[in-house]
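Customer escalation, tier 2.

The customer says the design service returned an amino acid string that "doesn't look like it belongs to this structure." They asked us to rerun it and document both sides in this ticket. The original structure tokens are below, unchanged.
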């Protein structure tokens, strides 16, 4: 029994979902490893209060990227090969990630002020080290902050030290683009429900993938249970009783003469 329409749809959704998941995980892991082992930023990991936020941020980036990449590998392998074991591992990991997302969203909402301050300190550490070292990995990190939050540096778009990493602006925005530390703190203080909504939305997406995985596993189980019955039925229909020995011919006995010996060679 092949997968029905719902099973095929869930299979396609899981494959696309895990391809996107793998790209995100690979990008996070690559950036984290770059920042961790780059010659310009390797010294930050010596315990120092001035770089503590940077170390924590990079470590979270590496661990989260590795976990996401691992989940995507199990999910893609299980969906493409219809392997229930791989899909079971994928379901467990996805459920854990969804729970972590929900917990993180609630934590950020409850301690929005503290989280905003720590993230602003992380940004200022990256900013200071980029100005000092000019590392490309730090430039990528700053560009992500600047484009996502639509801010620039410590003084706005007029900041000459990080202007290359800031978003392109018009004449008016050159004077109105805010500084990033202020934007980060205000984001978590005034829009804490929105930030929690982003975490919960991500968790909802993971739960959707979990539902699709459960449906696909059920379809695969049904197809495996129905396959042996079909095979037995075909075998019993295609085979009959073994052929018996050919009947003796009466002509043979009628042509034998009396007292004639039959020699069997």
């Amino acid at each position: 029994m092949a997968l029905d329409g719902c099973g095929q749809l869930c299979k396609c959704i899981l494959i696309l979902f895990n391809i996107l998941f793998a790209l995100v995980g690979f990008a996070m892991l690559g950036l984290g490893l770059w920042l961790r082992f780059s010659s310009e930023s390797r010294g930050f990991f010596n315990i120092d209060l001035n770089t503590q936020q940077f170390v924590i941020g990079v470590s979270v980036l590496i661990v989260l990227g590795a976990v996401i990449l691992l989940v995507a590998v199990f999910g893609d392998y299980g969906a493409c090969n219809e392997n229930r074991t791989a899909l079971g591992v994928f379901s467990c990991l996805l459920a854990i990630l969804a729970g972590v997302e929900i917990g993180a969203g609630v934590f950020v909402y409850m301690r929005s002020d503290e989280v905003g301050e720590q993230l602003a300190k992380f940004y200022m550490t990256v900013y200071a080290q980029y100005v000092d070292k000019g590392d490309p990995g730090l430039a990528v990190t700053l560009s992500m902050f600047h484009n996502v939050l639509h801010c620039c540096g410590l003084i706005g778009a007029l900041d000459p030290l990080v202007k290359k990493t800031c978003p392109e602006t018009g004449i008016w925005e050159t004077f109105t683009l805010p500084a990033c530390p202020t934007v980060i703190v205000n984001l978590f203080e005034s829009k804490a429900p929105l930030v929690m909504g982003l975490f919960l939305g991500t968790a909802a997406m993971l739960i959707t993938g979990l539902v699709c995985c459960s449906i696909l596993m059920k379809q695969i189980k049904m197809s495996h249970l129905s396959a042996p019955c079909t095979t037995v039925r075909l075998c019993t229909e295609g085979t009959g009783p073994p052929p018996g020995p050919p009947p003796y011919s009466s002509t043979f006995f009628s042509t034998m003469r009396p007292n004639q010996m039959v020699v069997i060679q």
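Tier 2 assessment: The sequence is consistent with the input. DSSP finds nine helices and no strands in the chain. Confidence is low (pLDDT under 50) at residues 230-236. Sent an explanation to the customer and offered a walkthrough call.
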